[in-house]
Task: inverse folding
C-alpha cells in the first residue's frame, strides 16, 4: 500500500482529465475524489457519496479510459469507493479482489474474455442500444456482422465497418457491442480493442527497443480488431504506416475490422490515401443525434438500470423536459437524467420539473426556462438554405427552394418551442393549421428517407437549441 504513489498517479491522471473534460464536469465529479492506496495494479479512490461513484463509473468510463491512455497509464486499474469507507475497509476490499486483478492484468491482450475491453464498458451491448431513425443503418450493420460471422458467401461486404459521428452518439457502444456479439459466436475468437493513442505509445516503445515487427505481428494475429477513434492518426505519420500494414494483413486474411471516427474517411485530412482506401473498402455508416422519440425511449431504457432501483418514479413531463434540452448526444441525455435523479436523492424529495430545472442549471449554467425565439429559428433556417428571411416568411410560392425551407422552419418551431399549429400558420402569412401539420409530416418523412436532409435538419437543431 502506497498512498504517496497513489497521489502522484492521480495527479498525473488529473492533468489529462482537466484538459479533456468540461470545467463543470471536472469540478463536480473529479475534484472531490481522493486517492487512497495503490499496490501496483489498482488505484483506489474515495468519492464523497455513492451517487458520485455511480456517476463517474457510468458517465465518465470512456473519458477515464482515454485519459489513462493519454497519460501513459493504460495498464492502471481504477476502483472507486464511497466516502464513508475507512482505510481498513478498503484494504479488505482490495485483498478480496487482488488475485483477480493480478490475473486480469496478466491475461493476453487478445482473448475471448471481457477483460479485453476497458473497465466501465460493461453496459455496452447491442441488446441495450436504443435504435432510432438516425442509427438504424449502423445498428443493422452491427447486427449483420454478428449474425453472419463465420458464414461464407455473405452478399454484403461489411469489412471493415467504418462508423463515424460526433462524440457521445454511441460509436463505441456499437463497436463494443459487436465485439461482445462476436465472442458469443466463437469461444476461440481472438479479439483486440485498440485506441490509436494506446497504439502510439506501444509503437514508441517498440521503436526504442527496435522491435516494431513483433508489435505488428501481435495485432496481425487477431480474428477481430476494434480500432476506436482513429482521427488522431492524422498527426502520426509512422503510426499510420504500421496501422496500414496491420489492416492490410487482416483484410487479406478475412479478419473482421471495426473502425470508428469523428468524421468520414474522406474528411480525415492528413490520412494517407492508401489508408483512406482501406477504410472505405467495406461499409461506411454514420450516427446522427437522436430525434425526440428516440431520446425519450433512451431515457425510459436508462431508468431500468439497477442503479436507479428504489428511486422515485420520474414524471413524463420531466422526461420530456430532459429529451428537449439534451439533444446533442446520448451521453448528454443520460448525464442530465442521472443528475436529475441524484439531485432529487440529495434533497430527499420526489423528482419534479423544478428539480429538473435545477439540475439543468447546475449542469449547463443556463436558464432552463429561457425559450428559443421564433425569429431566431426562422432566420437561421433561411440562412442555412440560402434564401432571404422575407422570402421564407412572406413569399407565396410552391417552388422547392422556398417550400422546403419553410416546411423545415415549421418543423423546427414545433421541435424547439410549444407553439401551436395555428400560431405557426399565422406566423407564415396566415397559413391554415392543417397545411402546417401536413408540412411538418412531410419533413419527418423526408428526414427518414434522405440522409443528407437528415443531417441538415439535425445540424440546425443543434445550432439553434
Result:
Amino acid at each position: 500500500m502506497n498512498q504517496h504513489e497513489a497521489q502522484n498517479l492521480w495527479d498525473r491522471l488529473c492533468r489529462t482529465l482537466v484538459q479533456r473534460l468540461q470545467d463543470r464536469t471536472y469540478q463536480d465529479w473529479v475534484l472531490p475524489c481522493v486517492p487512497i492506496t495503490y499496490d501496483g495494479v489498482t488505484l483506489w479512490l474515495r468519492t464523497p457519496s455513492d451517487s458520485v461513484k455511480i456517476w463517474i463509473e457510468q458517465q465518465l468510463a470512456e473519458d477515464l479510459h482515454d485519459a489513462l491512455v493519454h497519460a501513459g497509464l493504460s495498464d492502471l486499474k481504477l476502483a472507486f469507493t464511497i466516502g464513508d469507507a475507512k482505510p481498513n475497509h478498503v484494504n479488505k476490499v482490495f485483498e478480496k479482489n487482488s488475485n483477480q486483478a493480478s490475473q486480469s492484468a496478466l491475461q493476453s491482450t487478445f482473448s475471448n474474455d471481457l477483460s479485453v475491453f476497458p473497465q466501465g464498458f460493461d453496459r455496452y451491448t447491442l441488446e441495450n442500444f436504443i435504435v432510432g431513425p438516425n442509427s438504424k443503418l449502423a445498428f443493422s450493420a452491427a447486427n449483420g456482422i454478428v449474425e453472419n460471422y463465420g458464414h461464407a458467401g455473405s452478399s454484403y461486404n461489411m469489412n471493415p465497418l467504418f462508423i463515424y459521428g460526433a462524440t457521445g452518439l454511441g460509436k463505441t457502444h456499437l463497436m463494443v457491442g459487436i465485439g461482445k456479439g462476436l465472442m458469443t459466436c466463437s469461444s476461440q475468437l481472438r479479439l483486440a480493442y485498440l485506441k490509436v493513442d494506446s497504439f502510439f505509445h506501444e509503437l514508441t516503445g517498440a521503436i526504442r527497443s527496435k522491435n516494431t515487427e513483433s508489435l505488428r505481428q501481435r495485432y496481425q494475429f487477431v480474428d477481430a480488431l476494434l480500432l476506436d477513434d482513429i482521427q488522431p492518426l492524422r498527426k502520426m505519420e509512422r503510426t499510420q504506416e504500421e496501422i496500414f500494414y496491420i489492416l492490410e494483413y487482416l483484410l487479406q486474411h478475412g479478419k473482421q475490422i471495426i473502425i470508428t471516427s469523428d468524421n468520414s474517411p474522406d474528411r480525415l485530412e492528413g490520412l494517407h490515401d492508401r489508408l483512406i482506401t482501406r477504410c472505405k473498402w467495406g461499409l461506411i455508416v454514420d450516427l446522427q443525434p437522436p430525434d425526440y422519440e428516440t431520446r425519450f425511449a433512451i431515457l425510459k431504457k436508462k431508468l431500468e438500470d439497477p442503479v436507479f432501483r428504489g428511486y422515485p418514479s420520474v414524471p413524463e413531463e420531466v422526461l420530456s423536459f430532459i429529451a428537449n434540452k439534451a439533444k446533442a448526444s446520448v451521453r448528454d441525455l443520460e448525464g442530465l437524467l442521472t443528475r436529475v435523479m441524484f439531485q432529487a436523492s440529495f434533497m430527499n424529495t420526489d423528482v419534479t420539473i423544478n428539480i429538473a430545472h435545477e439540475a439543468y442549471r447546475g449542469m449547463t449554467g443556463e436558464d432552463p426556462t429561457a425559450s428559443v425565439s421564433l425569429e431566431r429559428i426562422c432566420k437561421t433556417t433561411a440562412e442555412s438554405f440560402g434564401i432571404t428571411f422575407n422570402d421564407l416568411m412572406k413569399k407565396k410560392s410552391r417552388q422547392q427552394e422556398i417550400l422546403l425551407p419553410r416546411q423545415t422552419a415549421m418543423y423546427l418551431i414545433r421541435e424547439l418551442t410549444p407553439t401551436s399549429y395555428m400560431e405557426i400558420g399565422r406566423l407564415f402569412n396566415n397559413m391554415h393549421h392543417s397545411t402546417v401539420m401536413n408540412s411538418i409530416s412531410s419533413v419527418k418523412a423526408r428526414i427518414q428517407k434522405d440522409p443528407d436532409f437528415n443531417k441538415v435538419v439535425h445540424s440546425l437543431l443543434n445550432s439553434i437549441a
Q: What stands out?
A: The first strand starts at residue 34 and ends at 38. Residues 89-109 have pLDDT under 50 and may be disordered. DSSP finds 21 helices and eight strands in the chain. The chain has four domains: 3-106, 136-287, 292-364, 374-464.
